[in-house]
Amino acid sequence: MSSKAPLLEVTGLKKYFQVGGKDILKAVDDVSFQIMPGETLGVVGESGCGKTTCGRTCVGMYKPTEGKVLYNGKDVHSLKGAERKAFSKDVQIIFQDPYASLNPRMTVAEIIGEGMDIHHLYTGKKERQERIGELLRMVGLNQEHANRFIHEFSGGQRQRIGIARALAVEPKFILCDEPVSALDVSIQAQIANLLIRFQRELGLTYLFIAHDLAMVKHISDRVAVMYLGAVMELADSEELYSHPMHPYTEALMSAIPIADPDIETDRKRIVLEGDVPSPINAPAGCKFQNRCSRAQECCRQKAPELKEVAPNHFVACHFAGETEL
Amino acid sequence: MSEQNEKKEINKNQPLLQVEDLRVSYYTYAGEVQSVRGISFDVKQGEIMAIIGESGCGKSVTARSIMSLIRKPGKIKEGSKILFDGKNVAAMTKKELSKYRGGECSMVFQDALVALDPTMRVGKQIMENLCIHGWSKKDAKEEAIRLLGAVGIPNAERRFKQYPFEFSGGMRQRAMIAMAVACQPRLVIADEPTTALDVTIQAQIMELLKKLRDEDGTSIILISHDFGVVAGFADVITVMYAGKIIERGTKGEIFYEPKHPYTWALLGAVPRLDWKNKQELRTIRGTPPDLVAPPKGCPFAKRCELCMNVCLEEEPPVKAFGEDGTHSAACWLYAEDAPQEVLEKAKKFAFTRGGRTNEQ
Fold it and tell me: ABC transporter domain spans which residues (chain B) (predicted)?
């Protein structure tokens, strides 16, 4: 396979949920992007913007309402038999809540070994045990932890076990759904370093979802900003940070507190009015229109398309690129 | 009234709140958990003080102690002193306490959904506080609606009649702030007020709290684990670790001349937008100590890159830096006989301005 072909290709993805009778919640509304092998795509957005639903649809946990997800050129949602099994080995997930995503009645060895059992990744008991020990050492735990239960570990250690479980089946692609949000600052850094190291050493591809823009920027090569189910801006992470073009990205960026009092005092802060509208009845036209300072009549009429304004910099705004920010 | 005003004027530079040698323990089956182990600080009139630290360092317990909200199995130990405007909080009668809580000192909790009563209309919850402090029902209602408007809730009159579940997360937090400031307290304790909120909403809430101080001169204690939030907001910062204050100073001193290795590590652990991508973040090895059996020496010694023998044996003395004595840290590095080689190593680890260590 040439390195130019994307590992994951999402086109026109929509995922609607029916809630309370007739209401339709448009969690993901026409999202398209590609992820190249070995790359990290970050997805940021506030709660309820559809970032988790988007991630889960990409790895086949939800069936999309419309649109396609191609993994290595094959439609994820119509895989069958051996292909489906190979896909589930290739693609793993690290969840947000290490307390809820690990079975409290299984030992660490059972949790890590389960995937290896299913995919027959070892030849004998001894090899299985050795492999589990090796995985535990990779994530900074040791062999003795293998026979313990989850309640004996701290949050950071649990997240390490979650990572070891994901790595056990030698995946190519990992969906990281807010993997550090539930952890303390110093522990967040440990986990982030671990993820970056494994990407370098094992050539993994990540879809990294978080609400913490600084962390996403730190880990990702490219970042997509989501708002109410749609991608507002997609660009290289350095570029997105230095030249945000969408008014929502600007506001989001200016709201992030920086741990430096001088910068913090001098900064101009764009404080958005009001709350995120409900995705059940999102505003017509551009979804950001009712909170946007630059909204005009055309924004209320027509939703802007995600277009390439600068090389590799996509923005969904009618006025993108017109004014210098 | 004029007499009172005069008194306030004189007290301007006097601390509003003095905490001396506060010790709080929880008596559990596992043993005595020493959550707070002898901390002292004071908060001046109109000052914003931030307490920063990781989970389990005792910052919330400190806040609850000030409000006298410690319940069994927890206990404030003897010898601890909390003075609010010269009055001893521990010695207050029930009547004085109910005047003190909500009246002079109030609290904004982290999780507004848990802190608000789900079966009671939001307006009524705000009125409740006012009524306790001597307002008539009619006035209290008007005031509650005014307060809801003042904290930026649109359609205050309609919102007044709604229940907490009908509010969004940011609005609930606003309602909590309205409740906290209803009786114009002199001190507001905000315990991680924005941790559960999105960044854009966080910015709104922090602006609101700041306005409170700027307009009414209210003192604020902000409890947080986020250096970013603190940077734009606090005047004085207290860093806590394992139930102790390990460093204290003004905002500039803590951010630009931090002295304690734990503060260095914390500052280096948070990725910043202006740092290079995918560079190694500073981590702190291991985990915080178990406070059932707190370590003998410095609580951070086991995780510290610069640990010396003395650190494991004896508690470090608190050393003051600078002339005005606002900056102090508890670390053996600043003892007179600290070995030269450790000091050399410390230079490498010290967190310098510009965000990175000298290493890089």
Answer: 17-267
